[in-house]
Amino acid sequence: MSRKTGSQFLLVLAYLFIAGAIVTLIPASAPMRNDFGYSSLCPFAPWSTLVLLLAAGVCGVIRNYMLSRTH
Question: Which pTM does this prediction carry?
Answer without folding.
Answer: 0.88
